[in-house]
Amino acid sequence: MNTTIKSGSDPGHQDLNSLCFCISLDEAALRRALESELGQPGLFDLVQKHCPHLFSPRAVFVSQDHLARMNQVVQAVTAVVALPAYQEVALSRAPAIARQGETQSHGVFFGYDFHVTDQHVGLIEINTNAGGALLNAVLARAQRACCPEMTPLISPATQADLFETRILAMFREEWRLAGAVRPLKSIAIVDDDPARQFLYPEFLLFQQYFQRHGLEATVADPADLQLRDGQLWHGAAAIDLVYNRLTDFSFGAPSHAVLREAWLSRAAVVTPHPRAHALYADKRNLALLTDEACLRKWGVPPATRDILLASIPPTEVVDAAQAERLWRERRHLFFKPVAGFGSRAAYRGDKLTQRVWQEILAGDYVAQRLVTPGERVITGETLLKFDLRNYVYDGAVQWVAARLYQGQTTNFRTPGGGFAPVWEWSGAGDCNFPLKKHPAGS
Fold this sequence. Notes:
Elements: E1 2-4, H1 13-19, H2 27-37, H3 43-50, E2 60-63, H4 64-81, H5 84-92, E3 110-116, E4 121-127, H6 133-140, H7 157-177, E5 186-190, H8 200-212, E6 216-220, E7 225-228, E8 231-234, E9 237-239, E10 241-244, H9 257-265, E11 269-271, H10 274-281, H11 284-289, H12 292-297, H13 302-311, E12 315-317, H14 323-328, E13 333-337, E14 347-348, H15 354-362, E15 365-369, E16 374-377, E17 383-393, E18 396-405, E19 418-425, E20 434-436
Parallel strand pairs: 2-19, 5-6, 5-10, 10-11
Antiparallel strand pairs: 1-20, 3-4, 3-17, 7-8, 8-9, 12-15, 13-14, 13-15, 16-17, 17-18, 18-19
Helix pairs in contact: 4-13, 6-7
């Protein structure tokens, strides 16, 4: 049924996530952005074939307060990671390569992933090779307002332009911080068998993006790279900087030996790099960031401690000595591998079998208190979960995107799911537009 929310009865952002069924994605505009404005002919069809549930047709509404709170959490984490005492602990248990090589650059595209509900903001993990940034810039250009009242919520194309400008500046800053004195000339986007990777279309977008800005750019498998005369090469092309999309965070695989040596010998700038992963994305760091005693010992100010303890769910390293207690509390926990990525081998405690539980006890895992994800009604009968990814560089939030999904974790396999734009809702002013009421009476 239809209902109208009148002036003086402003909906909250979660009301809109439950009641607004408007389609914001303009597929014709998406095709133009992927194929002509930013990408290359055939890229839209490649996305449709390769990853058909990459983009959601819906937007996700988020309050100004929640966006501000996520930014505060990012700032708090950045402040603690900068402390020598924190770095000593985090690097002491990391692979040796994290303490070697170039150490001044920050690492591009950190992803701070949050679960957000009306009552709570919870940081569930930090990633150092977060994908989707350029895809979300494209998505921002393909939005339409379903009604005049929604028009002010849509980010203008100039914001996507600004984001892309920041992306280019970020890579050049990584080059400068690594000690280079000449201008950056060439970039390789590197992953194993890149054409078979789920986000391969984004690799092509980055290649086109860099080329449009005067850089030589290639998409490469690390096995195709060579070291000659102190320089990294891809065929006949010298590589200044590697945009690293690998999930082998310490370059330990034999096929990544050349990239490992390039990092250690500074034959090329590699970003993100093993040190960044050790300081931010190792899941054990979440236990450090929620350990009040450690935070106090390190001299973390009370306001920063309060933000971290209130906004990161309590996390602990799984210890077999605590197996009985953890099993008893499992329904309230989520278990993640220390070096995990993409939700692989991650388990909700209430779904555990004894076989998997024994694997967790024998492996390197953390247990994190469950945090309820946000929910977005797609149709009257379909409700999806969502998380919010903050793309961050050097402690600054560059962009916020939503990921809609069904199941335990994000998967980009859910009809109606995928990346979604985040529309900031102030909760102020008149609101007088028709909303379809969810049958359950949300």
